[in-house]
Structures are given as structure tokens and as C-alpha cells.
């Protein structure tokens, strides 16, 4: 396996893990709202999740555990990836904040600060900051 194949494989696995995390959070109440399902359909295309992988993840999202990072900075980096995915084009409307709050809790942010963390993350994502700026700003305020 070449280095580029390894990179592609790791990138695809990470995308499947992120997608699975979002599916798990969206399924937390036992079902998808129509706007959540439409969002997942669109997100799967953007993440290059094949139809077979999509069906497999919907059937068993636990196959790819969320595994919240141990270090706070790594949690912020994961939040950056997931917030950008959820925020892609405001497709979820008001459900976006609820989904991100659930993701924040799943990543290990506390109920006491998750609302602030998500609000700050969304402001930074709206500003289209890069990862380094996102992490730096989030560490200042968390």
C-alpha cells in the first residue's frame, strides 16, 4: 500500500467516524426528523460515503464509536470538524444547535459549558476560520 493510499484510507475512515457520530447523535431520540434525514443524505455525499457504507452506518452507527479525545485541545479539534459538517449551509435550521449541543456532550464537554462552547464554535465557523485559529480562540474561552 502506498503512502497516498494510506492517507486516503485514514481520511475515509475519519469521515466515516465523523458521519457515524452525527448519525448516533441524530438518532438519540430514536428516529430521524425529515430535515435530519435530508441533511444526512447531503452530508454523506460531501464526505464521499458510498451508498453501501451509508446504509451500513444507518443500520449500525455504533460500529464507529465516537471515542471522545482525552485531551481538551483534541476535543476542540474534533468539534471543529463536526461543527463545520453540521453547519455546512444551515440546512438543519433550528435543529442545528440542538444537534451540535448533543455532539458537544458526546465529545465530553460538560452540560455547564456546552451551550457556550457551541455558541462560540458556531461564531468561529460562521467566520470561516482555519483550525489553528479555531483552537486558539476556543482555548481562550473554555
From TrEMBL:
Gene3D superfamilies attached to this UniProt entry: TerB-like
Domain Co-chaperone DjlA N-terminal intervals: 20-57
Top-level division of the source organism's lineage: Bacteria
InterPro entries named in the record: DjlA_N (IPR007791), TerB-like (IPR029024)
Name used for this protein in its record: TerB family tellurite resistance protein
Amino acid at each position: 500500500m502506498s503512502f497516498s493510499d494510506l492517507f486516503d484510507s485514514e481520511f475515509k475512515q475519519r469521515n466515516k467516524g465523523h458521519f457515524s457520530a452525527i448519525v448516533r447523535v441524530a438518532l438519540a431520540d430514536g428516529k430521524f426528523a425529515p430535515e435530519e434525514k435530508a441533511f444526512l443524505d447531503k452530508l454523506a455525499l460531501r464526505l464521499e460515503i458510498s451508498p453501501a457504507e451509508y446504509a451500513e452506518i444507518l443500520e449500525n452507527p455504533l460500529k464507529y464509536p465516537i471515542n471522545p479525545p482525552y485531551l481538551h485541545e483534541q476535543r476542540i479539534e474534533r468539534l471543529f470538524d463536526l461543527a463545520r459538517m453540521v453547519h455546512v449551509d444551515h440546512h438543519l435550521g433550528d435543529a442545528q444547535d440542538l444537534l451540535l449541543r448533543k455532539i458537544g456532550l458526546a465529545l465530553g464537554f460538560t452540560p455547564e459549558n456546552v451551550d457556550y462552547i457551541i455558541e462560540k464554535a458556531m461564531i468561529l465557523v460562521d467566520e470561516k476560520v482555519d483550525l489553528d485559529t479555531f483552537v486558539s480562540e476556543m482555548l481562550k474561552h473554555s
